[in-house]
Amino acid sequence: MALAQDRMTKRRAGDRFNDPVAAATTIYTGALVVLDASGNAAPGSTATGLKARGLCTERADNSSGAAGDIGVETETGVFCFANSAGADEIDRSDIKGTAYIVDDETVAATDGSSSRSAAGVIEDVDDAGVWVRIGA
Description:
- The protein is mainly β.
- It is globular and about 55 Å long.
- It starts with 15 loop residues before the first strand and ends with a strand.
- The strands form 3 sheets. It has a 5-stranded antiparallel sheet with strand order 1-7-5-3-4, with no helix packed on it.
- The protein folds into 2 domains: about 15-75, no CATH class; about 75-135, no CATH class.
- The chain is built from no helices and 12 strands.
């Protein structure tokens, strides 16, 4: 129903989230975090159907818990990840293209013959690694 009076609308900056952690899972600080098909957080891995959520800001150890027993704090933005190698190595010609998830700290230039999910947009490549925008 449309507003008929003023409303105090809640606001989030949209750069920090807290998601339930998948069962029997540990997510380390600095890891690329994804949401699985159930909406639970997990470390990035080579798989399809994952949604990049952000970077883990504090370790979440749910190794002996059920899904959702704890949450993980994530942050969106531009982060530096390790570069894949060989044909999957990202170079400067890939800037503004899509980076694909290899694991929770590595990204690649290709989807690995449709076996990898997207991490985000490649913003830069330098000696430190690949700078990827997640969640924008």
